[in-house]
Amino acid sequence: MESLLVTTVEEDDDDDEIQPNLMDDESSDEDVDDEHHASLLSSITSLTDQKNKNTQQRTVASADVSEYGFSKLYEKDSQVNLSELVSSLNSSTSAGKLKKNIKTIEQEKVADVPLVKPQQERLTRSIAYQAKTEEISKWQPLVRKNRKAEQLTFPLQQPNLSLRTSDEMTKRFQARTPLEREIAMLLHGSDYVEKQTKMLTPAEERALKAMSLEEAKERRAELNKYRALMTYSEAKFRRQKKIKSKRFHKILRKEKLKKEEKELDVLQKTDPESYLEKIEYADRARVEERMSLKHRGGSKFARKKMMYARYDPLARQAVQDMIEKNKELTKKHYESSEDDSDGDVSMDEDAEFRMLSAALDTKGDNPWMKAPTKSSDFVRPKKITQVKKNTEASDSEEEEVLTFHPDNMNTDKNLLELEAQRQKKLKLKNKTQKVEVFDMSNIDSPGKEQQDLDEDKVDGDENDELEKKLSESLKKEELVTPGKKSRKKKKKTPKIGEDKMADVDEDKKDVEDLFDILENVEKHQAKKKKTKKEIKLKENSKSSVESKKEENCELEVNDDEELCHSMTRKRTMEEYESNWVEEEDITPAKVKKQENSEESSQAPNIKMVSIDPKKLFTIGPEVIKSTDGAEIVTNEDGDNMLDVEEEQRMTIAQAFADDDVIEEFKLEKREIADQDKPKDIDLVLPGWGEWGGADIEPSRRKKKRFTIRQKNRAKRKDSKMANVILHEKKDEAVAQHQVKQLPRQFLNTKQFEQSISQPIGNTWNPEKAFHRMIQPKVVTQLGSIIKPMDKEEMFKKQKLDKTAGGDFNKNEPKKNQDKSESRKDIKNIKKKVINRKRK
Amino acid sequence: MDKSKSKKSKTFKSKPKASGKKSVQYETSAEDKFGSSHKGRRHRFSISHKYVNPFPDNNKTSTDKDQMVQEFTINVGQLSESKVKHHVNNWSKRKKWLHSDDKPGKIGSKTKNTRKQNSTEWRKDKKNKEYQISRKLEDPFPGDAPVDPKKLEKYRRTDTDELTEARMLSGKPEMRLTKAKTDYAVELSARSDFLLPDNSGGIEADEGEDTADLKQYDIINAVDITSASKSFDLKLPLFGPYHMNYSRNGRYLLLGGAKGHVAAIDWQTKKLMCEMNVMERTHDVKWLHIETMFAVAQKEWTYIYDNQGIELHCLKALNKPLQLEFLPYHFLLATGSSEGFLSYLDVSVGKLVTSTRTGYNRLDVMCQNPSNAVIHFGHAGGTVTLWSPNVKKPLAKLLCHHMGVTSVAVDNSGNYMATSGMDRQLMLWDLRNYKCLHKYRIQSGAGHLSFSQSGHLAASMGSVVQVYSDAYRQKIKSPYLIHRLDSCISGLQYCNYEDVLGVGHSNGFSSLLIPGAGEANFDGFEANPYQTKKQRRQAEVKMLLEKVQPEMITLDNTALSKVDTVTMGRDIEERNKLRYLEEKKISYTPKYRMKGKSSGLKRENRKQGVKNRVIKDDIKEILKEKRREKREKTLQNQRGPKHVLDRFKRNKE
């Protein structure tokens, strides 16, 4: 009972007012107490008081009016809760059963009374519908997209066959092996690694930041400066390279040499081992050179060059270089002290002197120290002897110096050395010697040094003498050298008797002399074999050779002349050509001019025809002015006359022709227009309802009434064109092919016409556009199964598309495998079943 | 006026020339185009693109900026305005930070406030800068390069502006797609315009000189050897005035002497293909679709020969022909006969399509409109008539001259027609509105007229040929070139893709050089002068496949793509006339029946049955009425038009 009561209390709010009383009553039933009773009474009275108040306040009629004055409390806060009602139980220790019951009630929830079945179903249906629509609406964009798509290729789920880009690969890369991991660690932490999004590495950025503007400017300025310097020096070198002065180059070389020596000195002090090595190397080169005579002219190359040297300055230069090389290599490298005494020009004279004196001292004492001179003697004994002949008076020191002479004489290279020696000698020796040596040196370069010579006041006689001596020595050398070269290949020499050319060409360049010498060597060999006759011949031929040379010179001159001539000729040719061109230009022009003049004289002068003010032809004709006339009389006036006559004739003809033509045309047009016009139907019966007869016309009223009037059609297209008749009837042939009904989606004909007027064929479109025009809406791959769209796949694909190219093909092979396996299983089972049956 | 002018020129000419040079610029048209074969683009022009500096000046005010934007859109054309605006704004932003970057030293001197601002800006700029430096730089000119709007306009066959809205929602994407496709095709062809590299040449005269003064030998002297070799004369005095015809690719020449001599020549190599005498009078000769067949209009009938000179057909259907025209896309051989018949014969099947009696006597002035295959005749009454095989009456009839028309020619575009008459007038007509554009007096009526591909007009007057350049676009002041022959001209045609004008005359044939006459860029699929045998065969098959039926020949080229509005209107009217069947509201409640016959389904069925019966009856009635109407109509037709006394007739029904 109690529980039921309580539930009713909970359910029906209307009974709320009664409950407290009831509860209280019950409680009062259990333990009757005066105090309690008093309190109850008081509470009841208070309630009634409230009720009284309420009734007084109430203005609107309400349903719940009880005689006890209970009324519903509308405020939520004032609603009575179960807990409030039962709160008194908490304080009391009795009524344990009731407490328990209440607790269970509080915990328990009682289900609603189920709805009626149809209602329930309706509800579930509506909910299901909502869910379904929600689910399906997910497809909406996809479907829309597919509908809009220009082309759909089935199956829609196609594996991504595109190759991965390197970027993607690197993104996916994971370091696995320890080495990879290590490298990755290094790379990852490093500032010098580029990042994906930035142009510069952090280190670079830092570096950029670190450099301030000023610094950068400075650096730039410095760089500029260096660059400028470089260009200057480059230019300088280039200029120097171009300088042809031998003396200049000699000086240069000398300087270079000096520098090297100095370096050697330094080396001696700092690194004696390398110094020794260098010296050894030089010695070895010298020995090898002496052994091989590679640079003396023994090689094939040298011989060839020598052959061409006479005519080719380049070859000459090459030979000279070679000889120089030879000299360089064959030069004995003395001990440093001697070296210094040899070559140093710019050294302090005192120092030199000291050194020299020391050398002298040593010479006397130490025989080994004399070795160089001896060795030089050994090298070229004959020359030395010869030189000795030349310089009998000279002492040993001079001898030593002079040992170089025969070789050096003809070359420029050691000229400066010689001069240096000369200076030394100036100090040490008498002047006569000096002059001699000086002269010797000066033989080589007669050009500019002549002035120096003059300054030094050299006698010409002495010079001559020297020359003679030289020639003699040369002759001797010639005689000697062949022995050395006899082993070499013999060579036919076309030119004979050039042995004496040396004498002749003394003034010529020393190199040439050398060639001569070499050539003569060969010739000498030949001589030995040949008879004396030939020698005589040679001697005779000397003059002839000279003459030849002269001829050559002449030839050269001729060539030059020719060249000049040709040059001039060329110029003249050009001139000639230009003249010719001019002529060409002029002649036709002239001709044309003449023609033009003729033509212009012939040209007819056509008058404007007076415009025929016919109504049909509003535009007046224009005369095309032309210089040419078909049937033209030469005389202008006559032409004019003819023109006038012609004009008259024509105008008359036109006047007659016009009328006919135009009238005819008008008539025709009217007829055609009438034919095309729908005619009114006259249904008037004369005499019907009135008098009829021969002369009696039916009344106007009747006529009007009984004629069926056709609707006025649109005006003819040619109604405003006087000289045109257009065919108005529809061309049925074309109409057959025309569209007669507007397709449904088009709003108007114009739209439709626009949509079909772009031709589709490849005759009118570029190939690409053509293919796009005709591409089908749906393409299916042959042999592939078209499955319905799989929800998971599609949405997954969309997701994947958003992220990156996924691999769809990963799962497929697995599935296939599964299938095949399952098939196998099925087969096995079947077999088993069959077997069992058999059993 | 004229006199004084001529005198002036005369005096000038008599002076010694200061420059002394006459520059003759000449370019061969189809000389060096071997192998360049592309499609469907005939005309060429050069346009220099204008690009605007994307950095707008910062100093300008906002209005100026707007102006800049305007200018930009005008010049670029292709980019939409919003896009351009976006661009400009972007650039201006960038420019801003660049600007502030320029003067970092000034920041110190400014007040704190400005400094702060600057610093914030600086930070922003830094961000920008980072963006700038980042490797994935944004393309400042994204997408394809804009296409010149003029070029687009050139290749646009139709507007697509209507193709935006569809009646149904489902039709909308489709419509958009067609629009996109059309625009794409137009854009692509505009883009590939640069593949037409060659310009047609021409002669430019110095000031005070006239190109008409130039003689053929001047031109020959000025041009290269191969071009010079294209000028030649054939002296054939025996077989009288010669008609001539060049093949469509300009490679082959057909000569027909009036006294029966017919010869086909590969005129560039001067190789004779065949030569014969048909022993009959010939009126005209024409190449058919390929160079292996040609038609000769002989005394009695038209004959077709092959390039060996073997007679293939004698077309007795085309009798007494005077003029021949071949419509290459339709494979139709049209003849104008001396008896006034215009006959069309389909060469591909050998059947006569139509033969129309024109109502004129001799149809000896004839030409075709190359753009719409309409045949033009010139008549003795000064009229020119236009014919199609589908209509037995002339499509249009123009009164052009006061006297007989001597020759008619229509230009390549099909928009202009030149006529000359016995009244010594040369007139140019616009065929779109049949109005006379220009009207000239010439010394004598032009016996023959011919338009070149580039719009030169050649007119023969007796033994003189005059060439007018650009005849219809502007008024002719003086002829472009003049050439005088020693005999009367009987045939005149420009050679396609060559700067050559062929002239047949009574003493043979002469080929003249007219610089700038031919189309410079040939389309190898359309007409290939360097066609091989294989290509020719393929082309023939393709031509046959793409053959246009004679029904398609109309004055209006675009007729096929137009809706037949007349019939459509009529149909709609008729449909509206039809009484629509309104569903009658039938209030019928089925009776209650026993034995389970009143279940819901059964009741519904009963209800439906009653409804159907009522509707059926209605339809029957309507059909009855219709039938009656129809019968009446047919009866009326049988009886002929309504007679006066019909009203007294009693209705049988």
Care to give the gist of this entry?
Chain A: This is U3 small nucleolar RNA-associated protein 14. The complex is a heterodimer of chains A (839) and B (653). With 839 residues, chain A is mainly α.
Key descriptive features of the protein:
heterodimer, A: 839 residues, mainly alpha, two-stranded parallel ribbon, two-stranded antiparallel ribbon, 67% helix, disordered N terminus, B: 653 residues, alpha+beta, Methylamine Dehydrogenase, Chain H, four-stranded antiparallel beta sheet, 11 helices, 28 strands, 27% helix, elongated
Termini of chain A, distance in Å?
75 Å
Say which CATH homologous superfamily of the largest domain in chain B is assigned. Answer: YVTN repeat-like/Quinoprotein amine dehydrogenase
Instruction: Indicate the overall shape of chain B.
Output: elongated
Strand content of chain B: 15-25%
DSSP strand count of chain A: 6
Task: Find the structural class of chain B using helix and strand composition.
Answer: alpha+beta
- The neighbouring-strand order within the major sheet of chain A is 1-6
Q: What is the count of helical runs of chain A? A: 36
E-strand count of chain B: 28
Using the alpha-carbon principal axes, give the shape of chain A: flat
Poorly predicted runs of chain B: 1-122, 129-134
How would you state the average pLDDT of chain A, rounded?
A: 65
Which structural class do the helices and strands of chain A define? mainly alpha
CATH topology of the largest domain in chain B: Methylamine Dehydrogenase, Chain H
The overall number of domains of chain B is: 3
Biggest interface, chains and residue tallies: A-B, 103 and 117 residues
Oligomerization: heterodimer
* Radius of gyration computed on alpha carbons of chain B: 36 Å
- Sheet with most strands: strand arrangement of chain B: 1-28-27-26
Main sheet attributes: strand count, strand direction, barrel closure of chain B: 4 strands, antiparallel
